[in-house]
Amino acid sequence: MMISQMNQAQLLHWIDMVSFAVVEITEYLDTHPCDEEAMKYFNHYADLRRTAMRAYAEKYGPLTIDTANPDNYWQWASSPWPWEGGNC
Amino acid sequence: MWNYEKRLQYPVNITRPNAKIAQIIMSQYGGPDGEMGASMRYLSQRYSMPNRKVAGVLTDIGTEELAHLEMVATIVRQLTKGLSAEELEAAGFAPYYVDHTAGIWPQAAGGIPFNACEFQSKGDAITDLFEDMAAEQKARTTYDNILRLVKDPEVSDPIRFLRQREIVHFQRFGEGLRLIQDDLDSKNFYMCNPEFDPGCGKQSGKSNR
What we know:
CATH superfamily of chain B: Ferritin, core subunit, four-helix bundle
Oligomer: heterodimer
Helix content of chain B: 55-70%
Largest sheet of chain B: none
CATH class of chain B: Mainly Alpha
CATH architecture of chain B: Up-down Bundle
Number of strands of chain A: 0
Shape of chain A: elongated
Number of helices of chain B: 8
């Protein structure tokens, strides 16, 4: 499924998955800085993550300050916090 | 510095409150092998770590532990949210409730408050990395113990994710230890302390490669 077709829960789940891949390969690369396959993997998932984070911010509000683009209302602190549940 | 991401590392959606289980899981927030100690341990140790790659592992794993701390707090919050004082008391939660109501505060399952003596930052690379590997195993055992007590799949699913991360981090710290040892004299790793003694290592001055 293209991310443009995903609902909020699906898009957040996708962000969780690609972000996990980035965290995992980051820690691996810290101790394997010459592994070119791993760097390809990093670049692939980091790009998917950037795209998904931007798409999420546009439709549902920012998950990071870097993707916040406020217009007439400051969503950052008024959309649900992650511990509230029911977002996924 | 740090940036916040407004999501959990792995989803937590608990629909059946259970203060008895909250009391147990709370230990991974502020207990002896919990995520608060884990993040503070790694983030504190990195400043004097002589090998930059190992400082990177400490930074990135220490950061991930902060995300785990948030997941554990979320589990405790969702397990206690909406319960009455009577329901909390019936679950054995009254001693916590009287001091913290349903707020999140770092303590062990048995009520012992979090304190910095639950981790070390020894200023010796080999010592610290062995501590880090042991810490990951201790946290893994704690999650195994929690999984024996928790039957609700909404709770055990994120706990299994956290348990798995302990195993991966043990592997990364083991690699870090090897990187440190590679920089030292293989005939005696303990000739000097690479975090303290100037010029310590088999190739003096190149330990940051």
